[in-house]
């Protein structure tokens, strides 16, 4: 057995796109070029608006905050919920109190096959 860390202290600060109080810890990359990381967004943090490079699933595992797609509406999101953006879709996320999310990025993701819609 091997034990690993993916907490905020071993992550990399996200400062692109005017992001604030955001850190990502890489977890794994599959041979099919799927990247999985853990996004730590601190209190009053934002991952700034930018287009998704590939399909992206944002799975909130603790805390709460908001997400948005290409519109201006900030949609509330909390632990146990996920947001999905397709490649090229502009998106942003943020929180007042702090939020942690697994970020799964890759071509051909189909979360609707496994999770019910809100």
From TrEMBL:
Question: Which Gene3D superfamilies does this chain map to?
Answer: Jelly Rolls
Q: What is this protein called?
A: Cupin
Q: Which organism is it from?
A: Brevibacillus choshinensis
